[in-house]
Amino acid sequence: MPNVEHRKENPMPSNWSPAEKKIARRAFDAALQRELAEVMRALKSMIATKPQ
Question: What is the pTM of this model?
Fold first, then answer.
């Protein structure tokens, strides 16, 4: 198994400019919101069709 260093303090590369970091954060947040919305939609669908 390869040795992988985990960076908890700041997951973004330090050589990114502040503008690049801001753009990356916005893209990440938008993707996260889409994924969470899909999970919620699927969960609500499962709840609605769950036999009683």
Answer: 0.63
